[in-house]
C-alpha cells in the first residue's frame, strides 16, 4: 500500500503531467504573452467585469501577479490586470 502523504493529487498546480509536453509551468513574476486573441478579457478585480479584447495587444508582454484556481492567472498588462487561463499564455521571448 502506498503512503498517502507521498501521493500527489491530479490537477495540482505544478503537475508536469498536466502540461503540454516540453512546456514549463508559469510562476509568479514570469513574463508572458497571449497565445491567441481572446474574445473578451475578464478583470482581476474583486467584482470582475468583462472588457473588450483590444485592451491587450497581440505582442504585449504581461507579468503573472497571482495564481488563481482552475488554472487561471492574474496577469498585469499595460492597461490592467486580467484573469487569463494558463493555456492561453506562453512565456515571453527574452530580449
Can you characterise this structure?
The protein has a domain at 26-91: SH3 type barrels (Roll). It contains no helices and seven strands. Strands 3-2-6-5-4-1-7 form a seven-stranded antiparallel β-sheet, with no helix packed on it. The chain has strands spanning 31-34, 41-43, 50-51, 62-67, 72-77, 80-85, 89-91.
Which characteristics define this entry?
mainly beta, SH3 type barrels, 7-stranded antiparallel beta sheet, 7 strands, disordered N terminus
Low-confidence stretches: 3-22
Secondary-structure content class: mainly beta
State the helix count: 0
CATH topology of the domain at 26-91: SH3 type barrels
Number of strands: 7
Assembly category: single chain
CATH architecture title of the domain at 26-91: Roll
Gross morphology: globular
Binned, the helix content reads under 10%
Order of helices and strands: EEEEEEE
What is the C-alpha radius of gyration, as a whole number of Å? 15 Å
Distance between the termini: 50 Å
Can you give the mean pLDDT? 81
Please describe the topology of this protein:
Blueprint: E1 31-34, E2 41-43, E3 50-51, E4 62-67, E5 72-77, E6 80-85, E7 89-91
Antiparallel strand pairs: 1-4, 1-7, 2-3, 2-6, 4-5, 5-6
Amino acid at each position: 500500500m502506498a503512503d498517502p502523504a507521498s501521493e500527489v493529487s491530479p490537477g495540482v498546480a505544478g503537475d508536469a503531467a498536466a502540461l503540454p509536453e516540453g512546456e514549463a509551468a508559469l510562476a509568479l513574476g514570469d513574463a508572458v504573452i497571449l497565445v491567441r486573441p481572446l474574445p473578451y478579457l475578464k478583470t482581476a478585480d474583486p467584482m470582475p467585469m468583462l472588457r473588450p479584447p483590444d485592451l491587450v495587444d497581440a505582442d504585449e508582454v504581461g507579468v503573472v501577479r497571482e495564481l488563481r484556481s482552475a488554472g487561471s492567472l492574474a496577469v498585469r498588462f499595460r492597461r490592467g490586470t486580467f484573469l487569463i487561463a494558463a493555456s492561453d499564455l506562453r512565456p515571453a521571448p527574452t530580449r
